[in-house]
Amino acid sequence: MVISAIGQGFLWGILGLGIFMTYRILNFPDMTTEGSFPLGGAVCVTAITNGVSPILATLLGIFAGMCAGFITGILYTKGKIPVILAGILVMSGLNSVMLFIMQTPNLSLLKQPKIQDFFTNLNLPDHFDIVLLGLIAILIIIALLLFFFFTDFGQAYIATGDNENMARSIGINTDRMKVIGLTLSNGVIALSGALIAQNDGYADIGKGVGVIVIGLASIIIGEVLYGEVTFVERLVAIVLGSIIYQLLILIIIKVGLDTTYLKIFSSIILALCLMIPRLKEALNLKTGLEKNAGSKSH
To answer: What are the coiled-coil residue ranges (predicted)?
Structure first.
C-alpha cells in the first residue's frame, strides 16, 4: 500500500507542478484544472479503446488539456472575463465535451493496453511499475520546466507574474504570457489526468471534482516543509508534498475512517497546511515576547 501511495504521489505531483505554473507564478488559481484533468483522461482512454497506442493517446490527452487552457486564456485576456470565472466557464463546458468524446459518463480500459505495460518485461514487484512511470514522467516534466523557465521567454513569463506593470513597461506582452502559461499549465495537468486514468483503469467525467485541492495541497505541504528553497528544489518539494499527501490519505484509510468523505479530509489537510505558517509566526512572536519580558525582569 505504501509503494502504491508513493506511485500515486508521483502521478498527482504532476498535477501540482501544473497548478504551480499559474497559482504561484502568475498568482491566480485556474479553475480550468477541474476540467482539463478529467479531459486528459477522457481523451486518452477513448483513444486507447479505439486502437491508438498508449503513448500517442497520452500525448492526445495533453493536447486536449492545452486547448482547454488556451480557451481560458483567450476568454481572460481578450474577452476580459475574470480569470476564475473564465476557468469555471471552460470547466463547465468540458463536461459536455467529455460526454461527446466518450459517449458515456465513464469508460473502462479493461483488457486494453496501458502505458505502464511497457514495464511488464522488467518483472517489477507490485506497484513498482507506477512508481517508475511516475518518476520518469516527473523527471521529464521538471527538466522541460527548467529549460523553459531559464530561457528569456520563461523569464518574461516569470516577470509577468512578479510585476505585470513593470513587465509591460519593458515591452513584454503580458496577455500572451498569460495565455501561454494557462495553455502549458493545463497540458501538464491533463498529462496527470491521462496517467492516473490509465493507472485506475478507467476515465470518468466526475474525476475532476476537487482535484485543485489535491494539487494545492502538494504545493502547500512542500512549501511548509522546506520553506525558502531554490527554484529547482521547489519543484522537487511539490512532488514530495504530493507523496506526503497521498501517505496522509493512506493513513486516513488505514485508521478506518469512511472514505466516502475523503474530500472533506482532503480539505481539512489543506486548511491545516495553510494555517501552519501563521501558527509558526504566532509561536515565534509569543516566544520573542516571552524572551523580552524575561530579559527586562533581569
So the answer is: none
Best CA proximity match to 164, nearest among 77, 72, 70, 68 = 77
CA distance 138 to 256: 31
Query: What cell does 43 get?
Result: 481523451
Closest CA to 226 of 236, 212, 215, 213: 236
DSSP 170: T
Which residue type occupies 285?
Answer: L
Question: Which amino acid, 57?
Answer: A
Grid cell 497506442 in the structure block, residue: 53
Per DSSP, 107 falls in state E
Q: Is the pLDDT of residue 13 over 70?
A: yes
pLDDT for residue 292: 63
Q: Alpha-carbon distance 94 to 243, whole Å?
A: 28
- Cβ–Cβ contacts within 10 Å for residue 175, how many? 16
List the Cα angle 133/60/183 in 5-degree steps: 95
Q: Are 172 and 36 in contact (CB under 8 A)?
A: no
pLDDT, one tens digit per residue, over 31-90 is: 999 999 999 999 999 999 999 999 999 999 999 999 999 999 999 999 999 999 999 999
Please, what sign has the CA dihedral across residues 62, 274, 243, 5? Answer: negative
pTM of the entire predicted model: 0.90
Chain Cα centroid distance, residue 238:
9
Q: If residue 179 lies in a helix (H) or strand (E), which one and from where to where?
A: helix 174-200
pLDDT of residue 289: 60
**Mean pLDDT estimate for the chain:** 87
Rounded distance between C-alpha atoms, residue 125 and residue 130, angstroms = 10
| pLDDT value of position 291 | 61
Matching residue, cell 518574461: 156
Strands (E), the chain: 106-108, 202-204
